[in-house]
Design goal:
Layout lengths: L1 H12 L5 H26 L4 H24 L2 H29 L1
Helix pairs in contact: 1-2
Length: 104
């Protein structure tokens, strides 16, 4: 996904970048990905609008909660927590890929 790839690239280019700036820069990329995914689903498949409404509500709650936490945390604590989350996501992707390759 976007942050898993973009955050390390941005941090490589500018290690002193503010984490709030980095999170703010990733939002437009996420919006584009979500929008084109929705367009593709509407164009080529069927959409479960009930599930979409649930996901929309959950995403909105966590988006707002993340914004509140981001404002309350210092930059170093925010950088640490984002780093931990990215590592966890990276490990989960690696494990799922490995399991998929072994079972295939």
């Amino acid at each position: 996904g976007g942050p898993l790839i973009l955050f390390p690239i941005f941090l490589f280019w500018d290690p002193e970048i503010s984490m709030k700036t980095l999170v703010g820069l990733s939002s437009p990329f996420s919006l584009v990905t979500i929008s084109f995914g929705a367009i593709g689903a509407l164009s080529f498949g069927s959409v479960d609008f009930g599930m979409a409404a649930i996901q929309c509500f959950v995403s909105l709650v966590f988006f707002l909660a993340g914004g509140i936490m981001m404002e309350r945390m210092g930059d170093s604590a925010l950088k640490l927590s984002v780093g931990i989350v990215l590592i966890m996501v990276g490990f989960s992707v690696a494990i799922r890929t490995t399991i998929g390759l072994v079972l295939a």
